[in-house]
Amino acid sequence: MKFITEWDLLVLEAVGDMRNPVLTFILRIFTHLADAGIFWIFVCLMLILYPRTRRIGIFAAVALAAQVLLGEVLIKHIVCRERPFFYVPSIDTIINHPTSYSFPSGHTSASFAVSLSVLFQNRKLGLPLLVAAFLIGFSRMYFMVHYPTDVICGMLLGTLTAIAVFFILGYLSKKHSIKYLE
Q1: Predicted confidence band at 94 (pLDDT cuts at 50, 70, 90)?
Q2: Which residues contact 3 (CB under 8 A, 6 or more apart)?
Q3: How far apart are the C-alpha atoms of 69 and 63, rounded to whole Å?
Q4: CA distance linking residue 142 with residue 12, whole number of Å
Q5: Which end of the chain has fewer CB atoms at under 10 Å, N or C?
């Protein structure tokens, strides 16, 4: 574990060296987009509202909910990893300190769960969301509120959740001919 923490801190230091006013302005927008999942909930609801994209929205919403249960409710409270600024008090996060545990990054896992759920079914809609997901994940390291391994595992959790939901809901829709999932 010590090796991982040392690597995490080295990467955070390198990311911190990139800080500049323009990048801070841009990444602040992206990091706050994912606060409390509001942007991703909005994306899901907008997709669900339109019959052409309803299936995509339902898949994305289920992936988002599953990711919240797995990451925020279960894993964070099992691992109980404190955030970088807890161990290195001199870290300037620029943004407000989150109060939950660090591992995995909820912003990142939610972003990947929704963006990939959309991408699997519609590349035109999914690609810009995936770019946003990467920027959100990077922003969490840039503001030093997450370790790189928190972000990497958040990406992995979001990805695996999106894949699982895609196959499970796809199977259920075919087996039971569920109208909105076909």
Answers
A1: confident
A2: none
A3: 10
A4: 7
A5: N
Q: In the structure encoding, which two tokens stand for residue 160, read together? A: 């695996």
**Tokens representing 137?**
């994940």
- CA-based nearest residue to 115, from 37, 168, 9: 37
Both structure tokens of 80: 């109980």
Higher pLDDT, 157 or 174: 157
- Residue range 2-181 in CATH 1.20.144.10: yes
Other Cβ atoms within 10 Å of 101 Cβ, number: 19
CB burial string 40-49: b at 16+ within 10 A, e below = bbebbeebbe
Tokens representing 40 are 């991703």
Distances (CA, A) of 68 to 26, 41, 110: 26, 12, 7
